[in-house]
Amino acid sequence: MNESTPPLQPPPPAGPPLSTQTWEVLCHASAAAGFVCPFGNLIGPLVVWLLKRHESPGVDAHGKEALNFQISWTIYGMILGVLSAVLWIFIIGLLFVPVLIIGFVAMVILVIIASVKASNGQLYRYPLTIRFLK
Length: 134
Description:
The protein is mainly α. It has one domain. 59% of the residues lie in helices and 0% in strands. It is built from four helices and no strands. Helix 1 runs parallel beside helix 3. The N and C termini lie far apart (60 Å).
């Protein structure tokens, strides 16, 4: 190495850090991880909330709300799934299939609404949510 070579410097950062509002949106939108892996709808918001809850009260509130909603709807889905499987034997379970589909579509729509509200700086309170985290 010759003496005219400048010392190595760390690379510049990839971009500006994400804003608090972006993390608030990610608390809700990360539930889309459920499309990729089982229980990703719980893992995504949990990871975002655990990483950023101490940095912002807004992220803490959005993370708790998203987690409460995802936990509640996971429980509701499991109960309906078990009921559907048990009642399937009697053909009545076919009636629960549309309810499961409607519930899934409602969950996706509510997550989108919450993400948009978070991007506007508002906290969205999901309906039919059990408040596990306060």
